């Protein structure tokens, strides 16, 4: 099975963003920032699931998936050699 076929929705999100903050920022709208006037508060609301336009993912889950995907990529590269 190809690695891309085995990716879940969460894995796709994790591979799309470099950091958890980038993921949170993608969920924040300009209207959110207009009313909240605080980017950190907007990120916290997204992280808690109160705001945002997508799936709620905890920081620990994001970082664990990111690490697992990187390990899988390294293992695949090593196996090909």
From TrEMBL:
Highest rank taxon of the organism: Eukaryota
InterPro entries assigned: DUF4464 (IPR027887)
Primary residence: cytoplasm
Pfam families the record matches: DUF4464 (PF14713)
Subcellular localization: Cytoplasm; Nucleus
Keyword terms of this UniProt record: Cell projection, Cilium, Cytoplasm, Flagellum, Nucleus
Functional summary from the UniProt entry: May be involved in spermatogenesis.
Protein name: Cilia- and flagella-associated protein 299
Species annotation: Galemys pyrenaicus (Iberian desman)
